[in-house]
């Protein structure tokens, strides 16, 4: 099945109220696991790659993602997650990405609009879709370390102005989620009223970053196998499912995959201390 753009997947998802999973990948094993799971579920999927993942693999993760996407039996978009600037977005477009995110959410509104518009013009000229962001999530956004105290949730009127001005294809909004394994205490707060208010004004697909569920049985297994993950809390499935009915069309998940991968690694290393075949270690799953 050929690669598809982010827009191809997300417009339909918003219209029919389902969510497309965008999963972060850094390597071969994770990429194959994401594609295999999507094929098993007969579900379209987005492979999300950060600049950090590209640097780590000297861009080979992109070749792997494009190769796997092209031969998958389900529609797949290859997406740049949290593109920091115009240059990286253009580099990714040249490499074959079908979707890029430009994240200038830490700038003032006018600068965010101006920078996003530049990327939209270039990307649209070659049929690539663009995700943008306004509002600030707490937690770590790759290079960006945003303090929870300064997290600013997305304002509906600003979101509307921003999308009219930039013509971006989808919009990441700050609604209470955060990146990483520590999303709050108890059941993390999701501002459902805010999602609905933004969706009333923005017809484009909305994106929820920081959507990992952080399965507690995996946290327990990780820690029993020597891990030390403390206060790990994620987004409840019911909150994600509700958000999808309210206008969220793309659900970003990275930490859950890291948690699953590290749990499996710790367990197999503990159970088989004499194993030295890397393939047998990396081939394990939780
Ligand atoms: P998690 O850290 O919740 O997996 O979120 C990932 C993400 O939003 C990537 O953009």
Please describe the topology of this protein:
Layout: H1 6-15, E1 20-24, H2 28-41, E2 45-49, H3 51-56, H4 60-71, E3 76-83, H5 86-95, E4 99-102, H6 109-125, E5 129-134, E6 139-141, E7 144-146, H7 156-166, E8 170-173, H8 192-201, E9 206-208, H9 216-224, H10 237-246, E10 248-253, H11 255-271, H12 278-282
Parallel strand pairs: 1-2, 1-10, 2-3, 3-4, 4-5, 5-8, 8-9, 9-10
Antiparallel strand pairs: 6-7
The protein binds 1,3-dihydroxyacetonephosphate.
1,3-dihydroxyacetonephosphate binds next to β3, β10 and α11.
Q: Which terms would index this structure?
A:
46% helix, alpha/beta, binds 1,3-dihydroxyacetonephosphate, two-stranded antiparallel ribbon, 10 strands, 12 helices, single chain, eight-stranded parallel beta barrel
Would you write up a description of this structure?
The chain has 286 residues and is of the alpha/beta class. 46% of the residues lie in helices and 16% in strands. The chain contains twelve helices and ten strands. An eight-stranded parallel beta barrel has the order 1-2-3-4-5-8-9-10, surrounded by eight helices. It has a two-stranded antiparallel sheet with strand order 6-7. Helix 6 links the parallel strand 4 (99-102) and strand 5. Helix 6 packs parallel to helix 7 (156-166). The protein is globular. The relative contact order is 0.13. It binds 1,3-dihydroxyacetonephosphate (13P). 1,3-dihydroxyacetonephosphate binds next to strand 3, strand 10 and helix 11.
């Amino acid at each position: 099945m050929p690669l598809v753009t982010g827009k191809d997947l997300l417009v339909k998802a918003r219209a029919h109220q389902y969510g497309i999973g965008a999963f972060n990948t850094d390597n071969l094993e994770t990429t194959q696991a994401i594609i295999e799971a999507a094929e098993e579920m007969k579900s379209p999927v987005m492979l999300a790659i950060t600049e950090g993942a590209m640097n780590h693999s000297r861009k080979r993760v992109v070749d792997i993602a494009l190769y796997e996407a092209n031969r998958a039996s389900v529609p797949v978009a290859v997406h740049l997650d949290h593109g920091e600037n115009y240059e990286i977005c253009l580099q990714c477009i040249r490499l074959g990405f079908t979707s890029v995110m430009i994240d200038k959410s830490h700038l003032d509104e006018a600068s965010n609009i101006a920078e996003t518009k530049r990327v939209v013009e270039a990307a649209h000229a070659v049929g690539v879709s663009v995700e943008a962001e306004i509002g600030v999530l707490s937690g770590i956004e790759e290079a960006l370390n945003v303090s929870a105290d300064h997290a600013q949730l997305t304002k509906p009127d600003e979101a509307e102005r921003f999308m009219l001005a930039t013509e971006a294809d989808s919009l990441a909004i700050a609604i209470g989620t955060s990146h990483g394994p520590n999303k709050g205490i108890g059941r993390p707060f999701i501002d459902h009223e805010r999602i609905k208010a933004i969706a009333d004004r923005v017809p484009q697909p909305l994106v929820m970053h920081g959507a990992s569920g952080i399965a507690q049985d995996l946290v327990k297994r990780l820690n029993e196998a020597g891990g030390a993950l403390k206060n790990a809390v994620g987004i409840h499935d019911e909150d994600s499912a509700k958000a999808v009915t309210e206008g969220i069309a793309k659900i970003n998940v990275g930490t859950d995959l890291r948690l699953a991968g590290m749990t499996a690694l710790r367990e197999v290393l503990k159970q088989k201390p004499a194993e030295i075949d890397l393939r047998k270690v990396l081939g394990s799953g939780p």
